[in-house]
Design a protein that fits this description.
- The protein is an alpha+beta fold.
- The protein has 4 domains: about 110 residues, no CATH class; about 120 residues, no CATH class; about 90 residues, OB fold (Dihydrolipoamide Acetyltransferase, E2P) (Beta Barrel); about 100 residues.
- The protein contains 13 helices and 17 strands.
- Strands 6, 7, 8, 9, 10 and 17 form a 6-stranded mixed β-sheet that branches.
- β11 and β12 form a beta hairpin.
- This is SWIM zinc finger family protein.
- Pfam families: SWIM.
Length: about 450
C-alpha cells in the first residue's frame, strides 16, 4: 500500500523535513531502487562519498536511514516515499539486499522480544516482590499527594486574590507574575496546572485574541474548578478521579493502560494537529472506529528534532486494537495491535446528525466537566465567511468557526459553496475544522494547536 503525497508529507516531523524531503523526490537523486511486497529501498547520494541507504517498511510504515539525522523520518525517508508515490515503476521488484532484510528481521525480533519480556517479567515476579513494589509505590504516591495538596492550596489562594482584585491590572504585572506561580506548581509536582497557567498567561498578553478577557476569565475559572475537584478527590467517582489526577499532572504508565481489555475495530485516521512549546512537540491524532463509530485520541510527544514513535497519517486506516485510558468519558488511547494498514475507504462511518453530535458532547461534558475539546464528524455542512465565519447545516443552524482557525479560504475552496463532511474539535463555543471529506477524499489542514 502506498500513501499519496499529502499523507506522506503529514508523516514528516516538522515543516523543514517535509520541504527537504520534497526536494529529494526526483529520480536523479537516487540509485539502486528496489521493492518487495512489504518494503522499498534506495541509495541517495549526499555530500560524502558513500550514499545514504534508506529503507521503508510499508506495513506500518517505518523508516530507517544511514544518514546522521536524528529526525524521524528523515528527509531521505520522506523523499524516497514521495518518489514511490509519484513513480512506482522506478522500483524494480527484487529480493531485498542484506542491509534491508537484516533491518526487517531485527524489527520482527524486537517486537517478539518485547512481548516475551513483558510476559517473563510478569511471570518472574513473586507475590512477595509484588507486595513490596506496591508498598514502595504507595509510599511515593502519598509523598507526592501531600506536595500536590499544598501546591493546590497555594494556587486556590492566588486565584481567590485575583478574583477579588479583578483582571484589569493583570497585564501591568508582567509575565513574571504568571511565571512565579507556574514555577511553584512545578515544584509541587503539579505540571498539568503549571501548563494551564502558562496557557492563561499567553491569553493575557495576546492582544490579537478575540474576546481575550472573556477567554482568560473562563480559563481561570476552569483552573479553579480543577483545583477544587482535586482537593475533594475522595468525593468523586473513580473514573473522574482518574481524569482529575491526569489533568493535574499524575502520569499513568502505558503498561497499565495496555493491560486493560482492548477495543477491536477498523480505525480510520481522520484528523491531526501539532503543538510546540519549544522543547517538546505534541501531536494529537483522532481515530474513529468504522464499525463502532467510537472516537479515540492518540497523543504523542517528540523532543527536539526527534520524530514520533508511531507514524499515523490522516487519510489512512488500519485494523487494530486500542486500549483506552481510564476515565469518565474515555477518549485517549494507545495502539496495542495494528494490522492491514491502508488508505482510507471511499466512505466514512455514518455521521450522526448535528443534534446527535451536540447531544454526545453534552453527555460527555456531563460525565467529565473538564473536557476541553470534543471530536465532531459533521455531514452536509456548508462553510461561510462573513463577519463571523461559520458552518451552516441543512436546517440553517450554524456552528461558529474558532477565531484562531487559519485555513478559512482553503475550506471555502474545498466546499465551493456545496455541503461537505467536516471533522473538527468543538470546545462548546466554536469548532476548529481539522479535515474535510469530499468526493471520496480526505483533505487535512496543517493545523497547529489553537488556544
Amino acid at each position: 500500500m502506498t500513501l499519496n503525497a499529502d499523507q506522506i508529507l503529514a508523516l514528516a516531523p516538522d515543516a523543514s523535513s517535509a520541504k527537504a524531503g520534497s526536494q529529494l523526490a526526483g529520480p536523479a537523486k537516487w540509485s539502486n531502487l528496489g521493492r518487495t511486497d512489504s518494503a522499498v529501498w534506495g541509495e541517495c547520494q549526499g555530500s560524502g562519498k558513500v550514499p545514504y541507504r534508506t529503507q521503508i517498511d510499508l506495513g506500518e510504515p517505518a523508516f530507517k536511514c544511514s544518514c546522521p539525522s536524528r529526525k524521524f523520518p528523515c528527509k531521505h525517508g520522506i523523499g524516497l516515499y514521495l518518489l514511490l508515490a509519484a513513480n512506482g515503476t522506478l522500483f524494480a521488484a527484487a529480493a531485498a539486499p542484506q542491509w534491508v532484510s537484516d533491518w526487517l528481521d531485527s524489527r520482527q525480533q524486537r517486537s517478539e522480544k518485547k512481548q516475551q519480556s513483558a510476559a517473563d517479567k510478569a511471570a518472574a515476579t513473586t507475590p512477595e516482590q509484588a507486595a513490596a513494589q506496591a508498598a514502595a509505590a504507595q509510599k511515593r504516591e502519598e509523598k507526592r499527594d501531600s506536595k500536590v495538596a499544598a501546591g493546590i492550596v497555594e494556587l486556590q489562594t492566588w486565584l481567590e486574590d485575583l478574583a477579588r482584585e479583578g483582571l484589569s491590572t493583570l497585564r501591568a504585572r508582567g509575565p513574571g507574575f504568571w511565571n512565579d506561580i507556574a514555577a511553584r506548581m512545578v515544584d509541587a509536582q503539579a505540571a498539568g496546572l503549571a501548563a494551564r497557567l502558562r496557557r492563561a498567561s499567553g491569553m493575557c498578553f495576546d492582544t490579537s485574541l478575540p474576546d481575550r478577557e472573556t477567554r482568560l476569565a473562563r480559563e481561570l475559572a476552569s483552573i479553579y474548578l480543577l483545583c477544587t475537584a482535586c482537593s475533594r478527590l475522595p468525593d468523586l467517582t473513580p473514573e473522574l478521579q482518574s481524569d482529575v489526577r491526569s489533568l493535574v499532572g499524575w502520569n499513568i504508565s502505558q503498561e497499565d493502560v495496555l493491560a486493560q481489555a482492548g477495543v477491536q475495530d477498523r480505525w480510520q485516521v481522520l484528523a491531526q494537529h501539532t503543538g510546540d512549546n519549544e522543547r517538546v512537540r505534541a501531536r494529537t491524532t483522532w481515530l474513529r472506529g468504522q464499525a463502532s463509530g467510537r472516537w479515540a485520541m492518540i497523543l504523542q510527544y517528540a523532543a527536539g528534532s526527534l520524530g514520533y514513535d508511531k507514524v499515523l497519517a490522516p487519510g489512512t486506516q488500519f485494523d487494530g486494537e486500542l486500549c483506552f485510558y481510564h476515565g469518565a468519558y474515555p477518549l485517549r488511547a494507545l495502539i496495542r495491535q495494528q494490522d492491514a494498514f491502508g488508505t482510507l475507504d471511499t466512505t466514512l462511518a455514518p455521521a450522526p446528525t448535528l443534534d446527535a453530535a451536540l447531544a454526545a458532547y453534552a453527555g460527555a461534558l456531563a460525565r467529565n466537566p473538564f473536557l476541553e475539546r470534543f471530536p465532531l464528524l459533521l455531514d452536509a455542512m456548508v462553510p461561510h465567511a462573513g463577519t463571523v465565519p461559520h458552518l451552516a447545516g441543512a436546517d440553517g443552524r450554524i456552528l461558529p468557526l474558532h477565531p484562531g482557525f487559519r485555513h478559512l479560504w482553503p475550506l471555502l475552496a474545498l466546499s465551493g459553496g456545496h455541503p461537505v463532511t467536516v471533522i473538527g474539535e468543538w470546545d462548546g463555543h466554536a469548532i476548529v475544522p481539522l479535515s474535510v471529506f469530499t468526493e471520496a477524499r480526505l483533505h487535512h489542514f496543517d493545523n497547529e494547536t489553537v488556544a
